[in-house]
Design a protein that fits this description.
Blueprint (H helix, E strand, L loop, with lengths): L1 E5 L4 H11 L5 E5 L9 H11 L3 E4 L6 H6 L1 H22 L2 E7 L22 H14 L4 E6 L2 E2 L6 H9 L5 E4 L3 E2 L2 E2 H14 L4 E4 L6 E2 H11 L7 E4 L19 H5 L8 H16 L2
Parallel strand pairs: 1-2, 1-3, 3-4, 4-5, 5-10, 6-9, 7-12
Antiparallel strand pairs: 8-11
Length: 287
């Protein structure tokens, strides 16, 4: 089967292409930003016609959450309008479309894990643009949406790698302890996307996060522990101490009911995933 991955130079895209390249019988076309501008509908159509993949995974995205507040139209072009073009191109060749989305489509005011069919209510521009992309994918009969959150990996900037670097530069770190979510390894998510498509599960929304929950402070302390450092060097603080242009959801825990319905187990606990990813993260950070 032929896969086409957009945003192949990003954190998730890199891991997904690597996972597919190691699979027998799979052909993978990985397109970086310089290879394909997903906002160019004609270019999207031509690429899909040329390669005729069976599955397209759209990892291309505007991910600068704060910048989206000031540039929502530009973010919408990447996160929303481009997905319409991808869906149209997939429909023309009969391909499945997997759209990567985010916990930011919820307002973050809940206290129980968000179900896949819970009401969406994004609280910032980034969330609104990603929700537009979800709707475009789901309007296509072969469209999947995989929501993820607190993503980290070896390829690209992220919270885990930042904490690893700052641990060697500062005596103490103040990290917010009033935002709760699910740290998710991009390697695990890449594996799950391949499993989802291969399972024959019906199109729709799936939550692709590692199990369990913690706060940013809890995650930072776990990182310090793995580094062999005193986790007490990470001091708990509150979100209002770090004002940002875009509001962040206080609660980002996603439920995983649809995996069971598809006959797939939930992803492993975030602590286990972090330990599995650790050698790759450590080698990459110190390269």
């Amino acid at each position: 089967m032929t896969w086409l991955v957009t945003g192949a130079g990003g954190m998730l895209g890199t891991d997904l292409v690597a996972r597919l390249n190691g699979a027998a019988g799979e052909k993978t076309v990985g397109l970086r930003r310089g290879d394909l501008d997903v906002t160019d509908a004609a270019a999207v159509r031509d690429v899909l016609r040329a390669h005729r993949p069976a599955t397209v995974v759209n990892c291309a995205a505007w991910t600068a959450v704060d910048d989206a507040e000031a540039h929502e139209d530009a973010a919408l072009a990447v996160n929303g309008t481009a997905v319409e073009a991808l869906a149209a191109g997939c429909a023309e060749i009969g391909a499945s479309l997997v759209q990567i989305s985010t916990d930011y489509v919820f307002d973050g005011t809940g206290d129980a894990p968000y179900r896949e069919d819970d009401r969406t209510a994004p609280a910032n521009a980034y969330g609104r643009t990603k929700l537009a992309g979800e709707r475009a994918a789901l309007a296509y009969e072969r469209g999947y949406v995989v929501r993820t959150a607190w993503l980290y990996g070896a390829h690209g900037p992220n919270f885990v790698r930042t904490m690893m670097r700052l641990a060697g530069e500062r005596d103490h770190l103040d990290v917010v302890d009033d935002q709760t979510g699910q740290p998710t390894w991009s390697g695990d998510l890449a594996e799950r996307i391949v499993e989802l498509v291969g399972s024959g599960a019906p199109p729709g929304v799936y939550h692709g996060t590692n199990a369990g929950r913690t706060t940013w402070c809890g995650l930072a302390r776990e990182i310090f522990t793995l580094l062999g450092l005193d986790p007490a060097r990470v001091r708990a603080t509150t979100t209002d101490r770090f004002p940002r242009p875009a509001p962040r959801p206080a609660f980002s825990v996603l439920g995983h009911d649809r995996w069971a319905a598809a006959g797939l187990p939930p992803m492993r606990d975030w602590r286990d995933a972090l330990r599995a990813a650790w050698p790759l993260l450590h080698d990459n950070t110190h390269a």
